[in-house]
Amino acid sequence: MRTLCASTLLGEFFVIGFAGLVAMKSDDLSMGTVWTVCGVAMLLSLLLCGVITRPGGVQLGWALQIALIASGFVVPVMFFLGAAFAGLWWASVHYGRKVDEAKARWAAQAQAR
């Protein structure tokens, strides 16, 4: 699960950065505000790569997905990209757990031989 989730989070890191570049063009937001919010979100996405298998890691990932979708109120295309990454996040968690279960079964079978 860790590899799939970390790949999704790394992709989000770049999308958040690019969304920050788009948000800078808004007259309503200061550059400091944009980069503070984007910087925190980018840092969170990188930190989550390391703690995804710990308790609460997946839930923090879901919180990031919700924040990405909500960022569509500032950069409208983020409604679509946030939803797409939420779908990728679900797939990463769902299929990552299946892969982990299969690996555990294979390891148990190898030990039994």
Outline the structure in words:
- This protein has four helices and no strands.
- The longest helix has 36 residues, at 77-112.
- The chain is mainly alpha-helical and 113 residues long.
- 82% of the residues lie in helices and 0% in strands.
- The protein is elongated, with a radius of gyration of 17 Å.
- The two termini are 26 Å apart.
Cα Rg? 17 Å
Q: Quickly give the structural class.
A: mainly alpha
Query: Which blocks of ≥5 consecutive residues have pLDDT under 50?
Result: none
Q: How far is it from the N-terminal to the C-terminal residue, by CA?
A: 26 Å
Principal-axis shape equals elongated
Could you spell the SSE succession in H and E letters? HHHH
Count the beta strands.
0
Largest sheet: none
Helix content bin: over 70%
**What is the beta-strand fraction?**
under 5%
Q: How many H/I helical runs?
A: 4
Average pLDDT score:
94
